[in-house]
């Protein structure tokens, strides 16, 4: 057991300084692979801390927005370089704090670095249009202006990539930032902020306040000087944030849950489809918003697909993400583990057949971690709770369908619309899928998870507030358009 005195304390970052929370309380961030290991102590902050952070961000705003895009971009390049130097340290912290395997954590950190460099470049690209005026003596054009202070509220499942894909565009377009990371990943967030500090970002441009969603998150959302709120997380939280932001006229962006389907057509390359289903559904312990959770398989290949899937799932090695032999790490928290186990019980109770897994994994000394077996349910019907609600764990539901039309109808019959994929060789089937699938991301002969940083990302239906993040689409949220009419 780690004693509290051996554990490093991480501070808030406000107005360019590392400071304790105003009430001086800390909480533990623990390792989900071994709940007795405390990864760090994080500040349990209050509304007062948020007020200080927002005031600092507001003071820094005028000077930051007056810099050119190239000058702001130079800071992003420096942050990227600092993160690159500390890549191993950041990735190891992520694995220890939220459980994903080290190769996945390294991949995510490298993605964060690429996102920073991508948006650094955006600082030199066009931000407006010239529009012919009906007055021949006038010049009419659009320009983009920053929102002002942006509140960033992020989840734990991509603790580097998500904060960066929100902060980098916010900063390049001239906004200043107050970020509240998820408590389960706040030490990892502190490492990013250390890199931002090392890069010499001007005082107050980026501020971090850690603590609970209900106190710190709510204070950011309700603060009258926070002009925009960008949130990624669960639907329950997103709805509250959207309502509060709307009530005071703040701009908001919500990216939320998914219940992502894969369709396996009768003509699919089954080996490829199995690989994509395993990778999309079970990597990161199923804790990706784009994770595959419903598997619609055409009846003529159902049994052979199931057999191949089972063979492959049995090979999955569960364990501490720091060990190179591990393919799947623990759930990120005890809470998350209990949620997954309760959905497994619901599935059994609803009459689905448990094909594999379905319980906690405690072998090889894993009883102190939040491990669960990869789980596959057979004979699932689309109205079952396990086919409708987001589980956010390594659970796959197999659903037999007769036709592609039936698969598409059922795949669309959920409240979410984040990502979807299909395995087929038929161009007609591909086209029907592209046209009829209600999802913000559709992928063919590829798993449901997998987002490229230069492309727009976001969901349809209840998965999103219908805005898009990443790529050039990010400018829509982080700026306002100003139309300018000039007559000399
Ligand atoms: P969560 O909603 O519990 O928490 C997200 C963040 O909101 C955390 O920082 C939390 O502290 C904060 N928060 C909680 N209550 C709040 C409140 N009342 N006011 C303001 N902030 C509050 O989500 P989570 O468990 O951290 O993340 C998992 C969820 O995120 C899943 O539903 C997943 O699908 C979703 N997600 C979506 C995307 C996407 O891009 N669509 C990406 C990753 C994760």
From TrEMBL:
GO molecular function terms listed in the Swiss-Prot or TrEMBL record: oxidoreductase activity, acting on the aldehyde or oxo group of donors, NAD or NADP as acceptor
Residues passing through the membrane, by range: none
SUPFAM superfamilies according to UniProt: ALDH-like
DNA damage among keywords: no
PROSITE patterns: ALDEHYDE_DEHYDR_CYS, ALDEHYDE_DEHYDR_GLU
NCBIfam families: AlphKGSA_gudD
Name this protein carries in UniProt: Aldehyde dehydrogenase family protein
Organism expressing this protein natively: Bacillus salipaludis
Classification of source organism: Bacteria, Bacillati, Bacillota, Bacilli, Bacillales
């Amino acid at each position: 057991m780690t004693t509290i005195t051996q554990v490093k304390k991480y501070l808030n970052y406000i107005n360019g300084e590392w400071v304790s929370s105003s009430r001086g309380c800390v909480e533990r961030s623990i390792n989900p692979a071994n709940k007795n290991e405390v990864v760090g102590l994080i500040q349990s902050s209050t509304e007062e801390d948020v007020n200080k952070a927002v005031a600092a961000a507001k003071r820094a705003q005028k000077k930051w927005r007056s810099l050119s895009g190239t000058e702001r971009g130079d800071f992003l390049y420096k942050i990227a370089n600092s993160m690159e130097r500390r890549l191993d340290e950041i990735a190891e912290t992520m694995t220890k704090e939220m459980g994903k395997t080290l190769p996945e954590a390294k991949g995510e950190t490298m993605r964060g670095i690429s996102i920073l460099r991508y948006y650094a470049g955006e600082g030199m690209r066009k931000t407006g249009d010239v529009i012919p005026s009906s007055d021949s003596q006038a010049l009419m054009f659009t320009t983009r202006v920053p929102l002002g202070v942006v509140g960033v509220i992020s989840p734990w499942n991509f603790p580097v990539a998500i904060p960066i894909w929100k902060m980098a565009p916010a900063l390049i377009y001239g906004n200043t930032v107050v970020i509240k990371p998820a408590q389960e990943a706040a030490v990892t967030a502190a490492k990013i902020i250390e890199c931002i500090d090392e890069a010499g970002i001007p005082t107050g441009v980026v501020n971090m306040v850690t603590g609970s969603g209900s106190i710190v998150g709510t204070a950011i959302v309700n603060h009258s000087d926070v002009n925009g709120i960008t949130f990624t997380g669960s639907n329950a939280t997103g709805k509250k944030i959207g309502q509060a932001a709307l009530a005071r006229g703040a701009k908001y962006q919500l990216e939320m849950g998914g219940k992502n389907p894969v369709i396996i057509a009768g003509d699919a390359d089954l080996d490829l489809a199995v690989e994509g289903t395993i990778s999309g559904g079970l990597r990161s312990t199923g804790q990706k918003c784009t994770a595959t959770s419903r598997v619609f398989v055409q009846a003529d290949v159902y049994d052979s697909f199931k057999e191949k899937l089972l063979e492959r799932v049995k090979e999955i090695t569960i364990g501490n993400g720091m060990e190179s032999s591990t393919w799947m790490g623990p759930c990120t928290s005890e809470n998350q583990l209990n949620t997954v186990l309760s959905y497994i019980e619901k599935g059994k109770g609803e009459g689905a057949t448990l094909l594999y897994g379905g319980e906690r994994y405690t072998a090889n000394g894993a009883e102190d971690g939040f491990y669960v077996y990869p789980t596959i349910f057979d004979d699932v019907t689309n109205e079952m709770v396990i086919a409708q609600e987001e589980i956010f764990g390594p659970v796959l539901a197999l659903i037999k369908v007769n036709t592609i039309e039936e698969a598409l109808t059922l795949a669309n019959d959920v409240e979410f619309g984040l990502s979807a994929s299909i395995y087929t060789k038929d161009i007609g089937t591909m086209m029907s899928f592209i046209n009829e699938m209600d999802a913000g991301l559709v992928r063919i002969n590829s798993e449901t998870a997998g987002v490229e940083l230069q492309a727009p990302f976001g969901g349809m239906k209840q998965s999103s507030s219908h805005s898009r993040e990443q790529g050039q689409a990010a400018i829509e949220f982080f700026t306002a358009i100003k139309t300018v009419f000039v007559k000399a």
